[in-house]
Amino acid sequence: MTYKSLHLVVNGLVQGVGFRPFVYRIATLNGLKGWVQNTNENVRIEVTGTPQQLDHFMHALRNEAPPASWLEDISAMEIETRLFPDFVIRDSYDLSDEITEISPDIAVCDACLDDISRQGSRLNYPFVNCTNCGPRFTIIQDLPYDRPKTTMKPFDLCPSCKEEYETVSDRRFHAQPIACRNCGPHYELFVQGTKVSDQISNILQRVSHCMEEGGLVLIKGLGGMHLACDAFNEQAVKRLREIKHREGKPFAVMFRDLDSLKPFVQLDEEEEQSLTSWRRPIVLLEKSGYSNCQELAISLNAGLSLIGVMLPYMPFHHLLFGKLKTPAIVLTSGNFSSEPILIDNDTTLTAFSPLVDAVVLYNRAIYNRTDDSVVRIIANRERVFRRSRGYVPAPIRTDFDAEGIVSFGAELTNCFCVGKGKKAFVSQHIGDLKGLETALFYDQTLLQFLQLFRIKPSLLAVDMHPEYISTKKGATFGDLPLIQVQHHHAHIASCMAEHKLDERVIGIALDGTGFGTDGHSWGSEFMLCDLNDFERLAHFDYVPLPGGDHAAEEPWRMAVSYLYKVFGADFIHLELPFLRQLDGDNLKLLLQMIDRKINCPLTSGAGRLFDCVASLLDLVQVATFQAEGPMRLESIVNKNCSESYPFVFQEGIICFDETIRGIVDDVLSGVDPSIISAKFHNTIILTIFGFATDCRLKNGINKVVLSGGVFQNKYLLEGATDVLLKNNFQIYSHTAVPTNDGGIALGQLAVASKRRELKCV
Ligand code: ZN
Ligand code: ZN
Ligand code: FE
What's the gap in Å between 433 CA and the centre of ligand 3? Predict the structure, then answer.
């Protein structure tokens, strides 16, 4: 018999996802001898066997890897034949400053749920996990990923866990967070700040009873604290809003399982896939029009047609639903509005004990804070709107050299990004940097990322906005070259990086606001661009933004601004319902501001135009959460209407005066708002199509890249995609990275890398 030996190097997401036990299994199954080993860079394997055995092994390696793993590449080299006595898993070791990837947290697997219901030391034990599931990123402090470098360190393994940990054929072989009720962490229940129980069955009993009675409970989750209550109890949901100081922003709901969810929403195959994936994000779903079951609390989602839904992902969730009669609970982040999600036990107890009826904590620390991620299926693909638990810290694989670049992101929906080789590590969702606590979260997480991924910063990238807190952080970070990237160029570059584009493209960025090179507030940028630079070819006509940032919170200001622009002072006499409700003095003041150009920067923000229309239709006058106007407008769109309004596209200015006249006429003649909304959306789609067509004709470029927060709008993105595809454009939009400002940092990093390559730094 002839034997051959192979040396294999496997790159990708291969640690903490049950990869080595998998290799052990397929090696021994195929009668191979040799070893497998984790390094901080990758997984290495040497195997000896017959050519046929090796073929089978390679086939299995490529095709049967564990679900949460991701193989970037496998390099196989034939080496001099070595005879090994057996197949072993060698100890991990540190090779260099290179790193392997870190697994995001993985929802509890079915086998572990099974153990929870019958395995002696894990009966009802809410920290059950195995190599295929459990906490990862949230507990990791450093690499290589071994228990002493996680927040499981204080928990010494009991003899039976130790045996499982060391038994290669066991599902918990080298499962770093392995635990049982004899040795692992435990939950504790507090009422009015006093510990009342540490027995899980008692805790579940009391918590479920409390929620059933309409109580509010704070529950420690995987990446931070959650506030929970019965999703059918309007009083409880209202009370939750009061303590969070969050007037209107929709709450996420966790359903017991798919079957209990189905009567409440419309669900297609892709949505079901996202919901049940091991990442377990919040999926934005359309409520079903008819429901013959109990009604969810009205104030859950402020009357919107969309609802954010997720399924249980921690063992505790499953155990809780085992006790609860209600099939759905609100599960929203445990924080005060504009602050990051809380992770610390003591702080939480102090802050929330007086506000809620019970607090459920556990005694393992959360090291990396993560929120629940939010996705929406648009044009049959998952689009990540908030990228955090279950997604981070998987890198975005790019085609450029990202080494040592740190990009600081935008301000409101902030993520930062650090580069290692060709990988871009986008941070978890950080939030609004104007909040002091959030800014601290930013600083701390940036340090953690630099350490975890062994990054030596050599180039910094920031937004052009001089007042962004992230820009200031970049400017004071250290004595390193600093690149400023225009906000909308960063949006397009982000989408290009995601799709590995490095050429001239047609870029269309629609969002709320971003600092423009002319000092105005941009937000509807139609450009020709590459990663290095952009040429702004067109934009929506400027209008005054009365009150600056304030105008984004009060859509009526935008409606007045547009009406004044189109009709002059005569607009006052229009019989528009929303005008009748306005306070006369406020209105007068606003017009004076516009006339005298006091605190009235000019804006081309697409979001502001959506706000204006939402106000004209009287959907919202004062927003209670970000992008409420656009969301309400999309919420009512009549999908069967193909009409649109006129607009003028001349010399790079897209003027909506005729659109506004059309909308006003329709409102005055009582056309249904759902039709007006559809006609307006169709108008925006036409501006996109019109520009792309014109640009292709003049420049011979066929690739259209769409980015910016406005493309979270499903009707708009699907409509634009549809018409562009039908006209043979190649079209690119975000999937893995947020199209909102959460994606800005990746774009900044891409531009910085390109400029460094071109030696423009
Ligand atoms: Zn498991
Ligand atoms: Zn144990
Ligand atoms: Fe933006």
Answer: 15
Q: Are residue 162 and residue 228 in the same domain, yes or no?
A: no
pTM of the model: 0.95
CATH code for the domain of 635: 1.10.357.160
Range with lowest mean pLDDT among 75-79, 190-194, 270-274, 302-306: 302-306
b/e for 89-106, b at 16 or more Cβ within 10 A?
beebeeeeeebbbbbbbb
Which residues have C-beta within 8 Å of that of residue 331, sequence separation ≥ 6?
219, 221, 226, 227, 228, 251, 252, 253, 254, 310, 372
Please tell me the distance between residue 122's alpha carbon and the centre of ligand 2 in angstroms: 9
Same domain, 162 and 250: no
- pLDDT, residue 351, reads 95
CA 126/CA 108 separation, integer angstroms: 10
CA 10 to chain centre: 28
Q: Are 219 and 328 found together in one domain?
A: yes
My answer on whether 200 and 344 are in the same domain is yes
| Per-residue confidence (pLDDT) for residue 293, from 0 to 100 | 63
What total number of domains does the chain contain? Answer: 4
Task: Please provide the average confidence, as pLDDT, over all residues in the chain.
Answer: 95
pLDDT at 96: 65
Q: Which two tokens stand for residue 744?
A: 């800005």
206-229 pLDDT, tens per residue?
Answer: 999 999 999 999 999 999 999 999
- Joined together, the tokens standing for residue 9 give 């190097």
Cα–Cα nearest to 132, from 251, 245, 275, 25? 25
Distance CA 487, CA 626 (A): 19
Is residue 291 scored above 80 in pLDDT? no
Ligand nearest to the CA of 414: 3
Q: Are residues 329 and 213 in the same domain?
A: yes
How many residues are listed for the chain in this entry?
761
- Residue 365 CA to residue 752 CA, distance in Å, equals 36
- 381 is a domain residue: no
Q: Give the CATH number, domain containing residue 128.
A: 3.90.870.30
Q: What is the distance between the alpha carbons of residues 612 and 602, in angstroms, rounded to a whole number?
A: 15
Q: Please tell me the predicted confidence (pLDDT) of residue 45.
A: 96
Do residues 127 and 207 both lie within one domain? Answer: no
* Least distant ligand from the CA of 122: 2
Distance between Cα 127 and ligand 1 center (Å): 10
Distance 200 CA to ligand 2 centre (A): 16
Q: Would you state the pLDDT for residue 289?
A: 72
DSSP helix/strand/coil, 254: strand
Ligand nearest to the CA of 186: 2
255 and 208 within one domain:
yes
**Cα–ligand 1 centroid distance for 89 (angstroms):** 20
* Ligand nearest to the Cα of 516, by number: 3
346 conformational bin, left if phi > 0, alpha if psi -120 to 50, beta if neither: alpha
- Give the model's confidence band at 292: pLDDT under 50 very low, under 70 low, under 90 confident, else very high: low
Tell me: do 566 and 663 sit in the same domain. yes
Residue 463's nearest CA partner among 490, 441, 495 is 490
Distance of alpha carbon 465 from alpha carbon 554, whole angstroms = 23
Which residue segment(s) compose the domain that 150 sits in?
Answer: 102-185
- Report how far residue 436's alpha carbon sits from residue 442's, in angstroms, rounded to the nearest whole number: 10
- Spatial distance between the Cα atoms of 250 and 626, rounded to a whole number of angstroms: 11
